[in-house]
Amino acid sequence: MKAVIVQMAPCLGDIKANLDRHLEFLDRARKDKADLVVFPELSLTGYSLKDLVPDAALDAARSPVFKELLAAGRGMSVVVGFVEERGDERGLFYNSAAFLANRKILHVHRKVFLPTFGIFEEGKFFAGGRDFTPFQAPFGKTGLLICRDFLQYGSSYLLFAGGAEVMIVISAAPGRGVAGPAGFETSRMWELMGEAMSYFSTAFVLYCNRAGAEDGLFFAGGSFIYSPKGERLARASDLDEEVLSCDLDLELVRQVRKKWTFKRDERPEIILHSLERIVRRYED
Amino acid sequence: MKINPAFVEKVLTRFIRDELKKFGFSKGILGLSGGLDSAVCAVLAARALGPKNVLALIMPYGAGFPSDIKDAAGLARSLGIRKKTIDIAPQVDAYFLRFPTKFRVLKGNKMARERMSILYDFSAREKALILGTSNKTELLIGYGTIHGDMACAINPMGDLFKTQVRELGAYLGVPGRIINKEPTAGLWPGQTDEGEIGVPYAELDAVLFELVDQRRSRNEVIADGFKAEVVDRIISLIKCSEFKRRMPPIAKISSRTVGHDFLYPYDWGK
After folding, report:
1. What's the complex ipTM?
2. CB spacing of A239 vs B4 below 8 angstroms
C-alpha cells in the first residue's frame, strides 16, 4: 500500500483556505495512486487557536467540509485533524482526528492527553477524549493517536493490546533546543518513540508532524514511518513543507510477528488486573 | 548553551521571511549601531529578505562614537543593504534644553526612544517591518529601554544569549572588529554593558542558562560554584524587569478582558 504523509503548514483559523489545500493534496495523491493520505494535527484549522476553538469547530457527520473531503478522498483512506463538536454534545470541543474511507467517516479519535504546561495550553480550550480503540481500516487494524498521546506510552500499549498493525500519529509538535547536530533536539525524542513503539508493537508507526510557524513557535516537521521491525522507512525534512510517500507491505507485520512474539505473548488481563489494584490504592 | 549556528540561521531567516510575508511586508528596517546584536540581525535580514529589502538606520547622537558609525556604515556597504544616517542630537538636545537633567540614564533613555520613534516613522514611510535586536540576556535582566530599543514588530534574536549571538555572528561572517568590540548601549562615552551590569557576559549567561533554561534553583546554581552575590544580583535584575517583558496589567472588571481572558493568536488568519 502506498502511504502519503502531508507535512503541511495550515493557515491559522482559516478552514476554507485549509480545506482548499487539503483538496489539492488529495487530488495529487489520488493521481499518484496513494492508498492512505495523512494530514497533521488540527490540519483543517491550525494549532494555536486559543479562543478561536469554538468558531473553528465542526461536526464531522454534518459538515460540508467533510462532504468535500470524503468526495476528494474517494478510493483512498484519509486522516485529517480538526476541532470536533458533535451535535449531541454541544459546547464540548475536542482536538480530534478523523479516519475517512469509502466515502464514510470510519473512526474519530479524540485526543486524550492535552498538554497544558509551558508553551502548551490545550487543557484550557479543549475537552479531553477518553478512549484508545483500534478500528478496522481497509488495509488492516489501525489506531489513531494525536501528538502528546504518543508520548504517554500507555496509549500505544492500548492500540497494541487492541490489535493495531498500523499506528498513525498526527502531530503539531513545536521544535525546541538547537544544540544538536541537525534540526531541533525534540525531533529526536519523537524518532526514539517511533523506533521503540514500532519495534515493541511489531506494527507500522506513521508520524505526520506539521511545518510552518505560529506566534513564534516553529513546528519541527521531521515526519517519519517506522516498520514493524523498528526500521526507519522514510523521513521528511525538518521545518519545511513536504509530501512524504512510502510503500508499505502489511505482510511484514506477519513476518515480524513470526519472529518476535510480543503480540502473541501479551497478557492484557494481567495488566488490567495490576492497573486496577494501582488505581484502587490511590489516596490510600 | 551550545548552538548549531547553521540550523539557527535557517530558523531565524525563515522566521524573518515568514513573519513579514504573513503581515504583507517585503521589507525590513532596523537600527544599526555598529555593535554586535544589530550587526547579526542585519546579516540575518539581508539573507532572509535580500539586501535591497533591508533598510538600516544609523542614528548616532552627534559625533560621539565615530568608529561605531564607521563600522555600521561599512557593514551595510558590505552586505549591500540600504542605509540612512540620521543624527538624533538636534531633537534630543531640543528636549533637554527645555527640561535639563544631570542624570545620564534619563538622556540615554530619551535617545533610545527618539531612535524608536524614528524607526516607527520610517517603518510607515517605507512600508518596512521593524526587526528588533534585543537578545535573551538583555530581555531577562531588563537591560534595555522600555518603548525604546526594546520596541519592535518582531524579534528574531530574543531567544539567543549574548554569547550565543557572538557565536552566531562569527559563523555568519560578521567582521571581527564588531564581534570583539566591548558591548555597550552607547548611551554615553566610556559606558560598557559589563561595567554597568557588574557581571561579565560569560558569567551572566552561564548563570541565566542554569536559572532559566535549566530551571535550577538559586541554591543549586550557587552549589555549582557561582558566587552567591552574583546569582542574587541576577535574580533581582530578572524580578525587577518583568514589567519590561509584558503588556501592562489591565484592571479586570468585566467577564472578558483584553490581556486576561480575551485570548487570540498573534498569527490569526495567517
Report:
1. 0.91
2. no
